[in-house]
């Protein structure tokens, strides 16, 4: 089974000690590491101090687990019949764990949509911020606001679980959500990973979303074959569909998506390569692709992400 890793496996103390042992930065890579460690340690210390400041005065302080920060810059270029289309997306996801303030409370900031749909280049993704509670095992209850003018309130109840069964890994997901502008909605999905060798996996992933205001079902289906040395623990389901949970690996992917139950909007075939560039905190990724889009008469349009 490929090793599942989290971006924040090291504690703040470990990062601080490692940074102290390093010589003064001499080259560009060492300066990058020093800047990353300084930023992460200071941000994490702010989280720890905030958590302990609001803890009950007579309570025994609990250790504050490391906070995962994810920042991604994605470019996508596709050569369309009417000219090349270029998109630039910035992805942000931060989840602050505050065990002394409330044992099951987390604060999050993200630009993923509330349904956890697979992101599409060029789509508007406003920041959302809120509180996340864990009322029971494998359940998350979120409440917060989305950064529109005026702000949009939202709430959601999410269930997900990871099942390792023999050579299979099964990851089901379901979510009930509501927003003040678009009303009630439901999203669900399931992913099957089959180990075909020591580090080779075959994957089939499905996702569907229904909203009451449109009464339509948006869906995505993915087939993937990859050599995967490491998989990141997925925070959001849409990242599995876009193979963004691979930390180190390469492979090929077929994707189909539609905005109506029985209608395909586009097909996409791609090959991808991803690897850590600096100490498992900085990752590089490249994905050449071909897309067949209904809007462009099913023309075979090459591109790169």
Quaternary state of the chains: single chain
- Order of H and E elements: EHHEEEEEEEEEEEHEEEEE
Spatial arrangement of strands, main beta sheet: 2-3-4-5-6-7-9-10-11-12-13-14-16-17
Q: Spans of 5+ residues with little confidence (pLDDT < 50)?
A: none
Structural class: mainly beta
Outline, from the CA principal axes? Answer: globular
Give me the number of helical elements. Answer: 3
Instruction: State the end-to-end distance.
Output: 28 Å
The helix content, as a percent range, equals 10-25%
Number of DSSP strand runs: 17
Largest sheet properties: 14 strands, antiparallel, barrel
Radius of gyration: 21 Å
Write up what this structure looks like.
With 305 residues, this protein is mainly beta. Helices cover 13% and strands 51% of the residues. It contains 3 helices and 17 strands. The protein has helices spanning 12-21, 28-53, 237-241, and strands spanning 3-5, 69-80, 83-97, 105-110, 128-133, 139-146, 152-160, 163-165, 168-179, 183-195, 200-211, 217-232, 246-258, 266-278, 282-286, 288-293, 300-304. The chain has a 14-stranded antiparallel barrel. Strand 11 and strand 12 (217-232) form a beta hairpin. Helix 1 (12-21) runs antiparallel to helix 2. The two termini are 28 Å apart. The mean pLDDT is 86.
């Amino acid at each position: 089974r490929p090793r599942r890793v989290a971006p924040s496996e090291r504690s703040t103390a470990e990062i601080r000690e490692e940074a102290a042992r390093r010589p003064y930065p001499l080259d560009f890579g060492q300066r990058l590491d020093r800047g990353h460690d300084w930023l992460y340690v200071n941000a994490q210390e702010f989280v720890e101090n905030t958590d302990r400041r609001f803890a009950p005065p007579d309570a025994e302080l609990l250790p504050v687990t490391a906070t995962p920060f994810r920042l991604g810059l994605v470019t996508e270029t596709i050569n369309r019949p009417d000219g090349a289309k270029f998109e630039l997306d910035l992805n942000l996801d931060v989840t602050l764990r505050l065990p002394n303030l409330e044992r099951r409370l987390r604060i999050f900031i993200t630009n993923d949509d509330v349904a956890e749909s697979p992101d599409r280049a060029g789509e508007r993704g406003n920041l959302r911020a809120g509180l996340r509670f864990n009322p029971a095992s494998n359940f998350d209850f979120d409440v917060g606001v989305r950064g529109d003018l005026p702000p949009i309130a939202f709430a959601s109840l999410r269930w997900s679980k990871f099942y390792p069964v023999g050579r299979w890994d099964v990851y089901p997901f379901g979510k009930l959500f509501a927003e003040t502008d678009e009303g009630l909605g439901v999203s669900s999905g399931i992913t099957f990973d089959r180990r075909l060798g020591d580090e080779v996996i075959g994957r089939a992933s499905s996702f569907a979303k229904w909203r009451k205001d449109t009464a339509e079902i948006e869906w995505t289906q993915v087939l993937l074959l990859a050599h995967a040395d490491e998989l990141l623990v997925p925070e959001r389901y849409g990242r599995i569909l876009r193979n963004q949970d691979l930390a180190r690996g390469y492979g090929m992917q077929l994707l189909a998506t539609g905005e109506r139950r029985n209608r395909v909007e586009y097909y996409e075939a791609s090959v991808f390569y991803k690897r850590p560039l600096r100490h498992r905190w900085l990752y590089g990724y490249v994905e050449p692709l071909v897309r067949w889009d209904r809007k462009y008469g099913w023309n075979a349009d090459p591109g790169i992400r």
